[in-house]
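Minutes, project huddle
Topic: does the predicted pose make sense with 3,4-dihydroxyphenylalanine bound?
PN asked that the exact inputs be recorded in the minutes so nobody has to dig through chat later. Recorded below.
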Amino acid sequence: MDGIDTLRGKYLSAIAGAADEAALEEVRVAALGKKGEISALMATLGRMEPEARKAAGASLNALKDEIDAALRARKTALADAALDERLKAEWLDVTLPGRPRRTGTIHPVSRVMEELTAIFADMGFSVAEGPQVESDWYNFDALNIPPEHPARQEHDTFFMHRAPGDNRAPHVLRTHTSPVQIRALMERGAPLRVIAPGRVYRMDMDQTHTPMFHQVEGLAIDRDISMANLKWCLEEFCRAFFEVDKVELRFRASHFPFTEPSAEVDIRYSNVGGQLRIGEGDKWMEILGSGMVHPKVLQAAGVDPTQWQGFAFGMGIDRIAMLKYGIPDLRAFFESDLRWLRHYGFSPLDVPDLAGGLST
Ligand code: DAH
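Predicted holo structure (tokens), as shared on screen:
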């Protein structure tokens, strides 16, 4: 067959010239595909004389094998070249120094919780916890707030959903940390000294209120505890916490169902050009409610009020954080604005403790 050499030349050079896999495939189809040139020649063999067919068949088969091998070799070469290209383009110098990443900061509320835990631990208080979804009984009844008590309205409570037909009192998002008093007393009994920092919820939103905020509950139960112990404890706390020589507290007679007598405590501060300062000025910010634990509360928690007595307080953590760190707007606390967090946040490595000075 005369054409064989021509065909060989034609296809081998087409294969060598194929720039990518798609071009190579076109060459394969043109030569060896069902309707390809070489396949067509193979089909003519049947009409040849036996002698001629033998010779032509052998050379056609040899050509077919040769083209097939060339196609495969070219395919491998193309793949290798593509890999080389990628390796060159995606080259990475692992010896370059890493880019510094921004590190996160500790939120002022978390920081203040660590600080107050350190201060109260130093006075012998341990940390107690309770659930944020709380039963009606712990949040109200056990604290001497029965179902029809007006204090229930004042708490702007969030109620959890109950299935239709389930007539039990719904659970609530705890409106204060005071239910932890009951839980801690029931679990540990008297005498007891605990604080309970955590989230609380009320349906309220303006410049100084957010629907979620933070309180720390304090409870000290023993045989001979008085209002004098409460006053000393709170003044000592404020001095240590605010780290200024002069801290002025004002005790105002008040009323809470779970304490008798009760007092609210305000702290003196000034606000000059949006900068809050503690211990000076003519403004007062209410930071806590407190009092002597009501006998009915002790009773509800299974503690004998003829044997034991004590004080309790509930303090606004966000408020004392605003005062200490001069942060004027409460709502910004919970907006997760990175600029705010970087400005007011604390280094994660800087853990407050009293021995080293609280915030040095
Ligand atoms: N639970 C009160 C509130 O959220 C605060 C409070 C007042 C807590 C007096 C106390 C207390 O433990 O003795 O408004």
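Observations noted during the meeting:
- The chain has a mean pLDDT of 92.
- The first helix runs from residue 3 to 17.
No decisions taken; revisit at the next huddle.
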